[in-house]
Input
Amino acid sequence: MHTVPEHSGLNAWNGLPRTSCSTALRPIGEAYIPIPKIVWQQHPNWVNPQVNMDDYQSYRRTTGQSGYPIHLHMPNGTIFDARFTQENFKSLQTDPQSILGLWILNALGIEHPQRLRYDVPATNIVTMELLERIGYDSIKLWHEDPQQPDELWVDFAEFGSFERFINNEIQTTEE
Output
């Protein structure tokens, strides 16, 4: 069974302070979407036919950028700047990370997503059991217009959708 890391990804807000000598809490709702390497291996040019997302080092050398920018269209119609970032494009995040994080965490019923003390982890974190109970295991991204590859729409995906996607199984339009 898959797990949700306690201090990164959806629970980045529950991580330790950014520097070892700091007592500063992570921002409320700080989170990002982890992207497994297999996604880019199977679909390297899905975001943009001109960009191979499976070759992060070449992208960095060619562009001088550490992330690929997009406009992320939220279900309520709001549009935010976002990036596929971190080594090997293993993360989707907004700036600040709390925009995407609070949308997800609020939908999952996580109240006050922030540690109360820098040295005590929170207990109200996202777990795989919580995701299964609510019925989501991932998000879905899509293009409304393939001619605009940097415009991506996002929503929650039904539990089991990610496995079906990776296994190239047919998905319903709701997924």
Remarks:
- The chain has a mean pLDDT of 93.
- The longest helix spans residues 98-107.
